[in-house]
Design a protein that fits this description.
Blueprint: E1 2-4, E2 14-19, E3 31-46, H1 54-65, E4 69-78, H2 84-102, E5 109-116, H3 123-136, H4 141-150, E6 159-167, E7 170-179, E8 192-197, H5 203-214, E9 232-237, H6 251-273, E10 281-289, H7 292-303, H8 306-313, H9 319-327, E11 339-344, E12 347-353, E13 356-357, H10 362-368, E14 373-379, E15 385-392, H11 396-403
Parallel strand pairs: 4-5, 8-9, 10-14
Antiparallel strand pairs: 1-6, 2-3, 3-4, 3-9, 6-7, 7-8, 10-15, 11-12, 11-14, 12-13
Helix pairs in contact: 1-2, 2-3, 5-6, 7-9
Length: 407
């Protein structure tokens, strides 16, 4: 497996475009198009929030139908959530406008929206934007990069990732882009993620690969504990790599899934580290667990602790908050057997041994916790299972961003 430059246009046969439609933001792009030169097999995972945005409902219908997907139209600024039948109509109108502009079937057009909940989309601006996108779509890494920029809301950086693998003597590429900075606490995937591949793969294998992998990637991140109304991860496969079709549980499936995991984990970590107002990516590893479920529950509990996140922001080795968060997670362990370590590029330091503080240096601990990427590892000494969760620190800037988000 080899990491390469690029995102959604890294794989064969994919084009992208972006434009400034003026939906909410001024002076920046806010619409993106992903286009495949041939229809794709599709897979998707969607928010478990009872309140689901219209694009989530639209995309789920298309993915479940098995229709060949050839385009994705995404807007930022307005989420098209809590918009009733009118919002669903806007999805249909968007798909039909894209189908006409691209000369494809409307049943193969997915839509994505992110931004303010409860506002109606300015459809004429979207329709006009689609015309521009159709005329600008192009292959190449720059068009994919521009698309990644266009789907950002409060994100401070674009998020892209691509890898190459070999399957049956053919080079297969998987690339993706995502956005997410606030309202991040996925219970299926993330805010918006779009992954493309030129692999030939069955729909069953594609869906299983995505559904299985989100449990260890997007479902293991949290910025603020809020599960969005719009969470969507889409995976498209157009088969242009020319490999023999991958089937579920085959050796080739495992190779494909390993590469997909690298893309998803990287995008997930980029979102966690770019949490609203964040200054650091906070990684929590739980090792020595008696089950995967136990390890995941403990790691996620620590990552979601506001007190722990505030301590990380202050570069304070307040390990009691971590042990406390583990204690209220709902799973059983012996706190008097826990070892805890802090680690970053500045070094590694054991903070507690068997549930009791070591004679560590606060100065060294602060130095370790002052890096932009920090890892806390808790060994609970109960078994051989482990899990990792990702989050970020909690700063005053998070409140500043969200106090007046609509305005």
């Amino acid at each position: 497996m080899k990491q390469i430059k690029g995102g959604v246009t890294a794989a064969k046969g994919y084009e992208a475009a972006s434009t400034a439609a003026g939906i909410k933001y001024q002076g920046r792009t806010d619409m993106a198009l992903i286009y495949s030169q041939v229809p794709c097999v599709s897979a998707g995972t969607f928010t478990t929030n009872v309140v689901k945005a219209a694009p989530v409902k639209w995309d789920r219908q298309i993915v479940d139908s098995g229709a060949g997907v050839q385009a994705v139209v995404v807007n930022s600024g307005i989420a098209n959530a809590c918009t009733g039948e009118e919002g669903m109509g806007y999805c249909k109108e968007t798909a039909e406008a894209a189908a006409k502009a691209l000369n494809i079937d409307a049943a193969g057009v997915l839509v994505g929206s992110t931004g303010v909940i409860g506002m109606q989309l300015p459809m004429q601006k979207l329709v006009d934007g689609i015309q521009v996108l159709a005329g600008k779509k192009a292959e190449g890494l720059q068009s994919g990069h521009d698309a990644a920029l266009a789907i950002m809301t409060t994100d401070t950086v674009e998020k892209e990732m691509a890898v190459e693998i070999e399957i049956g003597g053919k080079t297969v590429t998987i690339g993706g882009m995502s956005k997410g900075s606030g309202m991040i606490h996925p219970n299926m995937c993330t805010m918006l993620a779009f992954i493309t591949t030129d692999a030939a793969i069955t729909k069953e294998a594609l869906q299983k690969a995505l559904s299985e992998d989100v449990e260890d990637t997007y479902n293991m991140i949290s910025v603020d504990g809020d599960t969005s109304t719009n969470d969507t991860a889409i995976l498209l496969a157009n088969g242009l790599a020319g490999n023999q079709e991958i089937t579920y549980a085959s050796p080739e499936y495992e190779t494909f899934k390993e590469a997909l995991h690298m893309v998803n984990e990287t995008l997930a970590k980029k979102m966690a580290g770019d949490g609203e107002g964040a200054t650091a990516l906070f990684e929590v590893k739980v090792v020595g667990a008696e089950s995967i479920k136990q390890a995941k529950t403990l790691a996620k509990s620590v990552v979601c602790s506001n007190l722990t996140k505030a301590a990380i922001a202050g570069h304070d080795a307040n390990w009691g908050r971590i042990l406390c968060a583990m204690g209220y997670s709902g799973v059983q362990f012996d706190p008097e057997k826990v070892d805890l370590f802090f680690e970053s590029k500045a070094g590694k330091l054991q903070i507690i041994e068997n549930g009791v503080a070591t004679d560590y240096s606060e100065e060294v601990a602060t130095k370790i916790l002052s890096e932009p990427e920090i890892t806390a590892t808790a060994d609970i000494k109960m078994g051989d299972y482990s899990a990792t969760a990702w989050g970020c620190d909690l700063t005053h800037e998070y409140i500043n961003i969200n106090a007046d988000y609509r305005s």
